[in-house]
Specification:
elongated, 8-stranded antiparallel beta barrel, OMP/PagP_B-barrel, single chain, about 200 residues, 8 strands, Outer membrane protein beta-barrel domain-containing protein, Beta-barrel_OMP, Porin, mainly beta
């Protein structure tokens, strides 16, 4: 997360030099859905993403994003079955269990802007396509079980930017992200609210 923040600050420093383009840094709050909710069913307040958008014209932009979200759930004292690497035996262990999900989505993005750049609000509809690195980790006492996979992912979104001047704006958006099943990692889905700052080159 720290590296992503440093990269964001460097890019934002260069943004006034980049015409017809936009850089966006968002703080994110996410709700797990489906099997992600079953594994770690607790709202996450630990997430961010960095977006780049290039305007083809006033109505369409293309770009990309990279993000990070983590989900955490304290299951309390439970009994669970563990299969350790290199062994075919299943071990039943009782202890305090903590579950984590880390996701790193990397996507190309397209947006349709509903108004031109001279309005107080610039609402948009968008779609991201790409991949998401997903890690599931369960800690039970001194034992840890972990699975990690790259998943194909897509993310429709809706939101608006609120321009302050020609080079600065705020962003508010909502996104649904779905990652397909990959190996032992089930399909992952979540709903995210984003609040961020935007630097624009004109």
């Amino acid at each position: 997360m720290r590296k992503l923040l440093i990269i964001s600050l460097i890019l934002f420093g260069l943004s006034p030099l980049v015409k017809g383009q936009m850089l966006n840094l968002n703080y994110q709050m996410s709700v797990p859905l489906g099997k992600m909710n079953n594994y770690a069913g607790k709202m996450s307040f630990r997430g961010m993403d960095l977006e780049y958008h290039y305007f083809l014209n006033e109505k369409f932009s293309v770009g990309g994003m990279i993000g990070w979200n983590t989900f955490y759930k304290d299951k309390g004292k439970v009994t669970g079955d563990f299969l350790f690497k290199g062994s075919k035996d299943i071990h039943t262990i009782t202890g305090y269990q903590y579950r984590y999900i880390n996701t790193v989505p990397i996507m190309v993005m397209g947006r349709y802007w509903l108004t031109d750049q001279n309005t107080m609000f610039r609402p948009y509809l968008g779609l991201g396509l790409g991949t998401s690195w997903t890690e599931l980790k369960t800690d039970l006492g001194q034992f840890t079980a972990k699975d990690a996979r790259w998943q194909f992912a897509f993310a429709p979104e809706i939101g608006t930017i609120i321009p302050v001047n020609d080079q600065f704006a705020f962003n508010i958006g909502a996104k649904y992200t779905y990652g397909t099943k990959s190996g032992r990692v089930d399909a992952m889905q979540n709903f995210t609210i984003s609040i961020g700052i935007v630097f624009m080159g004109n």
